[in-house]
Amino acid sequence: MSVEEQMIENAKEGKVLTHKCSSCGHLHLSTVYYCQKCGSKGFEDTILEGVGSIATYTIITVPPAGFEKHTPYAFVVLQLDNAELRISGFMGGIATPDDLPVGTRAKITGFDERGIIIEKQ
């Protein structure tokens, strides 16, 4: 199974596939090829819970082709708990900033044609 397929399967279970550097232990999203901290190319897979708080987002009211039925929605950046990692995803039903204050608790709940799905906790 490819790294992308593993990432998708984990997202469907509300989890995040990460790579932990074998040399220094620094955590990375699974899309890196060398450690950003020490330069090592050795990694071991580590699965994290896809839970955290909203760091930032963009509300989409004029969607790209194929996303019209999902409007309005937010493309969000989720700061994961217990890791210095952020992951982006899709959150439906967000029309105004009042709908999603920065810091709102959220979690990964799945993956579909939109990408990673994130919902409020």
Automatic annotation (TrEMBL):
InterPro entries per the UniProt record, alphabetical: ChsH2_C, ChsH2_Znr, NA-bd_OB-fold, Thioester_dehydratase-like
Superkingdom of source: Archaea
The ChsH2 C-terminal OB-fold domain, residue ranges: 48-109
Gene3D superfamilies in the cross-refs: 6.10.30.10
Cited SUPFAM superfamilies: Nucleic acid-binding proteins
Domain ChsH2 rubredoxin-like zinc ribbon: start-end pairs: 11-44
Protein name (database record): DUF35 domain-containing protein
Provenance organism: Candidatus Nitrosomarinus catalinensis
